[in-house]
Amino acid sequence: MKGIRIEIEQPFASYSVPGSFQLRETFPLPPYSTVIGMVHNACGFKKYVDMDVSVQGNWASVCNDIYTRYEFSPNRQFEKERHQGYFEENGRKYGVVIGVGHVELLADVNLLIHIVPKNQDIVETIYNGLLYPQNFLYLGRTEDIVRINSLETVDIIEEILDYEEILKYNAYIPVSYKVENEIGTIYRLNKKYIINKSQTRYWEERIEALFAPKEKELTIGTKIYKDSKGDLVFLA
């Protein structure tokens, strides 16, 4: 099958963990939904395009930064002595508390991403969309702009390892790959959402994936994919 291979560089990035508020924690790599969202943004897709992705990458360090934090409730009216700001709706003012929050950042991020659309006829469409994006590309927060260092179409083939393979990057490996000695953190990563009749978005597909550290050994007999440049691919 055909896919798109992308090498990406980011000075800083934060791939927010849902539900982390006091400190906005980051995933160690961008979740599948974040990568798929970048592709849709680049290509200008107006409805969901089904695709499998592989996410690998390294970074230099983890640090913290501060940001302006806004807290408000539609049930709390503006009180001058309590709130630093307000928003107005239907003639009523609602209070906003403005303060400082902390966000976790990955520094000097380098990613290796593979994208394989279920419809193989649109491989070139996605390639051209990433080459000439309709919008500026980012992964994580809007300010986490990406630089694409390499972009190409590749062949991806399935293999059964007949020798031990060492990971060159940290990687998300879906648990369906049945990697031996699954020691590490298993994340339940969002992939595909749908919008129901009440216009509420919810996640239809989540993938359980092992975060495998760089230099982990994959044993003989493990089923994996490789691209035509010899790099491992863990499609989900």
From TrEMBL:
Any one of the GO BP annotations: maintenance of CRISPR repeat elements
Keyword entries, A-Z: Antiviral defense
InterPro entries: CRISPR-assoc_prot_Cas5, CRISPR-assoc_prot_Cas5_N, CRISPR-assoc_prot_Cas5_Tneap
Highest taxon of the lineage: Bacteria
Record carries keyword Amino-acid biosynthesis: no
Protein name as annotated: CRISPR-associated protein Cas5
